[in-house]
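Suppose a colleague, Dr. K., hands you the sequence of a protein chain of 242 amino acids and asks what its three-dimensional shape might be. Before reaching for any lab equipment, you can write down a predicted structure in token form. Begin with the sequence itself:
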Amino acid sequence: MPPNAPFLQLKDVTRQFPAADSGVLTVLHGISLDVSAGESVAVVGPSGSGKSTLLQIIGTLDRPTSGQVLFEGVDVAALDPHAIAAVRNRMIGFVFQAHYLLPQCTVLENVLVPTLAKAKDATAELTRLVGKAPDGKEGMEDRARRLLQRVGLDARVGHFPAQLSGGESQRVAVVRALINSPRLLLADEPTGSLDHAAALSLTQLLVQINKEEGATLIIVTHSRELAKQMGRELELQDGRWR
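The predicted structure, expressed as tokens, is then:
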């Protein structure tokens, strides 16, 4: 790692898509950002400002048209697909507005889904980034049960998603995002579909996780109430920092 390199760094990131008129639609215009390890950051802005695209690029679900995305000085966008998959699976946890729980799986089984993914051909730099592999199956199940107990869902481990409330489903999604002990937790409108009480409870949970687990937290949100709980608030407008 280069001396004093930020945990996460975006350098002049631009994202373009083909437009219907055979032109180009630029969603992000030269975005740069430094985020320290353990920091909590909220990204706010109107619909269509590029927030979700930015989060997808940070989370390696998308690649920038130009620019760099670096984790501790390593440009992840330049890694091969297997290495990127390993970073995503072992280093990054995702929480979306829609919880995307598998309806045929129990709460416990849904939480354990990310532990089943395997990545190949990790480079030396990748191994340094993601660290040791998580514990074996038995250890991961113990961790899943501990986390579910921590969020008040220990009595629901055998339930199916259809038997949960919206707030409970989103808490399961948070635990699923944490199961591989990610160093970076990304949340895209995590409270958008919840009522005020459930949204407040989830906000408190994310703040607690950031402090106690030490995971760097980046949240995209329309909620100023949620944004104000983060250590830093940034605003995107028309694909540029305001």
